[in-house]
Amino acid sequence: MSRGDAGLLADSLVAADVRGIHSHGVLRAPEYVEKLLSGGVDPKGRPRVVSDRAAALVVHGGNSMGQIGAWFAMGLAIERARASNVAAAAVRGSNHCGAMFYYATRALSEDMIGIAMTNALPTMAPWGGKDKIVGINPLAVAIPCGNEPHVALDAAFSYSSHGKIRVYGQKGVPIPATWAFDSKGVPTTDAAKAMEGLLQPIGEYKGVGLAIVSGMLSTLLSGASYGAESGNMIDGAKAGHDGHIFIAINIAGFEDVARFKSRADGIVRQIRESAPIAGSARLFAPGGLEAETEANYRRDGIPLNATTWEGIESAAKRAGAAR
Questions:
Q1: pLDDT at residue 100 above 90?
Q2: Which residue, 77, 62, 124, 74, is CA-closest to 99?
Q3: In 108-204, where does DSSP find H-type helix?
Q4: Whole-angstrom Cα distance, residue 179 to residue 186?
Q5: Distance separating the N- and C-terminal Cα atoms of the chain
Q6: Which of 196, 224, 228, 238 maximizes the CB count within 10 A of its CB?
């Protein structure tokens, strides 16, 4: 990869780790190195605009690492929203792009709201079914505040992700019984059985419905592959088939920015100061816990388990990188 692209990809992984989202951090390095060395993903791939209609853009990722095309597209949405107040960039020809907050929060410094969605390989079934045809298709929304931590929701529509289940498996810790089904559709606490089975959706049929809608928005507007068209968890993803969508909303086009941020601060404080139930020490608005984790990790360092370090070292050797 070019130095700039490699730096962006590395930054996206560390940004996830520093917020405590280790499922999308440097844990992914071996997987990404393999994608680049196998010839599937193009390390030199360049994203480009293939349709430009005022506030509606379509980007082809050029089969680059997903982070490259996603960052490019979010930047375009922000740029257009300065003039049009709302703009969207849909992406095809892309690959796994990591944690979605990384793109949504890019809009915050521009006094904009950022929204990011992506498709994912099928790991869930329609509610009441057993065929693995629905991805967890995450959504991220970032809303700027004034003095309080910015609101930053980044959530898939399953109780957990395969990445988190992998982390639990590496630690030898049972997963919660609400996270996954085994291959027979029975709830399991065994990480290995969960990886072979189905992820459980949040909110039952509501979670699956949200996942389907997010997946459709992430793929149909750009012409990217939906669901099983993009691959599966056994054979892996098909290179260059992923789709995403990025939306920027310019607050100044709707409301006085200072007043908006002041009211957002009030909402965050209201949540933080509201009464917790027994056994819950503190309450956070979306992104508040991650902001606190980031402050602690920047001060004390980011803890990584031995398996993650071994994976990084193995990937470095495979790529011929110096220690």
A1: yes
A2: 74
A3: 162-171, 191-196
A4: 11
A5: 18
A6: 224
Dihedrals phi, psi of 90, to nearest 5 degrees: -95, 145
Cα 164 from chain centre: 13
CB 111 within 8 A of CB 144: yes
172 class by beta-carbon count within 10 Å (0-12 exposed, 13-18 middle, 19+ buried):
exposed
Average pLDDT over residues 107-118: 98
Query: What phi and psi values does residue 214 have, to the nearest 5 degrees?
Result: -60, -40
DSSP assignment of 243-286 equals: EEEEEEEEGGGTS-HHHHHHHHHHHHHHHHHSPPPTT------T
pLDDT at 323: 62
Cβ–Cβ under 8 Å, residues 62 and 239: no
User: What kind of architecture, by CATH, is found in domain 3-158+201-289?
Assistant: 2-Layer Sandwich (3.30)
CA atoms of 171 and 173, how far apart (whole Å) = 5
Other CB atoms within 10 Å distance of the CB of residue 96: 21
Q: Where are the domains of the chain?
A: 3-158+201-289
**Does residue 322 register a pLDDT over 80?**
no
Helix 3-18 vs helix 66-84: crossing angle, to nearest 10: 90
The HSE-up count of residue 316 (CA atoms within 13 Å, CB side) is 11
Quick: pLDDT tens for 18-46: 999 998 999 999 999 999 999 899 999 99
Please report which helix (H) or strand (E) contains residue 152, including its range.
strand 151-155
Q: Which contiguous run of DSSP H or E holds residue 143?
A: strand 139-143
Write the pLDDT tens digit of every residue in 39-70: 899 999 999 999 999 999 999 999 999 999 99
pLDDT higher than 70, residue 171:
yes
pLDDT at 177: 93
Q: How far apart are CA 209 and CA 127, in angstroms?
A: 9
Residue 112 near residue 249, CB atoms below 8 Å: yes
